[in-house]
Structures are given as structure tokens and as C-alpha cells.
Amino acid sequence: MMHRLPDGAWPVMLTPYRDDLSIDFDAVDEYTDWLIELGAAGLFTVSLSSEMYDLSGDEQLVLARHVRERAAGRVPVVASTTARGDWRAQADRVAKIATTGVEAVVLISSLVTPPDATDSAWIDTVERILDAVPGVDLGVYECPLPYKRLLPVQTVRWLAQTGRFTLYKDTSHSLATMTERLNVIGDTRMRLYNAAIASLVPSMQAGAAGLSGYAANVYPDLVSWVCRHANDADQTDVLRVQRVLTMVEHSINLRYPSSAKFLLDASSRLHWRARSRWKPESIGDHEGEPLRQIAQLVRELDLGRADLHAAR
């Protein structure tokens, strides 16, 4: 059992596919190695970026186990459970995901209870899950789908004080909310990871542990660099890099995750097909050219770190 997860970049891993849209596990291996080599502190697989809702239950298990085995202890790995409904079914799925060896099984905040459930009902369901799976570390992800359930600060405090939660992926996009949550998390095991690159630096200055978001999927080295230097006295360079990464995120938002796969193919040693089960529309020359341009811009900018992305 890992006491606390490490600070830094936590990519929400993309899932590469073959022509028939089956998972390309050779590409998963290459991507896992690449992310770790470029400084990822940990890996979040079976996430929304992994197209978790478009993976079968068996595929989720196989993918989580595969990434965990490929990481081979170099960095911790976490994975989501997409179970919903009765707490027994959710606990059973948590137990199954835990057998893959991941360091934590991540609950989707909006799947734990129906949309109209009270916060006390949400806590009651999670408490039952905890009792049913002793010894398993957990996390919480405020996933925007099927809808975003932002937890109140008193619920965040309760999660932290259980001692069982190690990861909280915050999607509030509010520095004030994150600061309030960090104040109640304190020095517990639970770490808060910001999903929004635009506020990464101030959130880390407030006590956040790092970024778990789009930018880390495609430029893990730059996100890691920002995390390491977020508290530097001179903020000129770190804020410059954060601005560039904010532009990168904006450039891939429209056709994500295919756009991120296209950008990886244009900017790294990885050879990816821009294919998605979730959003199957293709990336043509018109849509792809701005992504090529952003990749070229990042290569040309002097961002104060060794360029670990091989030119194509």
C-alpha cells in the first residue's frame, strides 16, 4: 500500500486502436514507456480520455492490468470503475479492478448515486463500498459525463478523513473551490490533482499535487516541468509554459480524443492512428493542420527544458 501518491503530471491515458477499433496493446506499451520516460509521476488509465464508457467490462480489466504490468513499478497506476446502481454491484466491480494490481480504484462521482441523491446518501453508498472492499485504496474523479457532480467541501473532508482515498481529480475549474478543498484535505493521504492546465501554477501554490488532464497526455515533460517549478520565485518562464500548454489544450478540445492522438503522431516518436470509438469522426487535412502547427510551435519555442520530443 502506497502511503501517498507522488506530485506531478498524471496523464489520463489515451487508448490507441487498430484499424478494426480493437485495442492496440503494442501501442499501449509504447505510450506507457513514453509517458514514464518524459516524467509522468503516475498514470490514470480507464479514464474518460481512455474512452472508458466505450470499453467493455473485460476490456477495462485487461487494459488496467496491462498498463500496470508495463509500468512495472516505475510509477503508480490508477484506474476507474464505471459501475453504477446498487452499492453491492459497485463494490464488486471495485474488487475486480483492484485485482489488476492498480494502486487505487477511482470512483466516478456522478455514478455513485442517482443525480437526485443527497450528499448524505452519496456518503452512505461510498461507506458501504469501503466496508465491502477492505484494504483497497480508492480515488474520486469528478468526470463531466454523464454529468458533473462536484462534491461539497464537507464530503471532501469526509473522504480525506477515511484514510482510504489517495486521489481526488478536481474538475471544479475554480481556484477558490480547490483552495477550500485543500484546506480540509490537509496532510491526509488524499492528494488533489487539478484537471485544468490554465490554473495549474496557482493551484499547486495552494497545495495541489499536480495535473491530471489533457496536456499531460501529449506533453508530459512540459507539465512535469511546470509542476516542479510552480513555486519558483521567478514565475516568468513557468507561466509562459503554462500559457503554451493552455493553447495546446484548447487546440485539441473540439475533436478530442482523436485530436490528441493526431497531435501525438505529429509531435512525438509515437505512430498513432487518430481513431476513437467515442467520437469516430475522422481528422482530415483541414482539421489536422492547426494541430501540426501547434506541434511545430512547441518545437520551436525555447521553453527552458530539453526537447524530448523527436522531430518527425
From TrEMBL:
Pfam families per UniProt: DHDPS
Alphabetical list of CDD domains matching this protein: DHDPS-like
TM stretches of this protein: none
SMART domains for this protein: DHDPS
Domain of life of the source: Bacteria
Family affiliation: Belongs to the DapA family.
Protein name per UniProt: Dihydrodipicolinate synthase family protein
Organism: Microbacterium ureisolvens
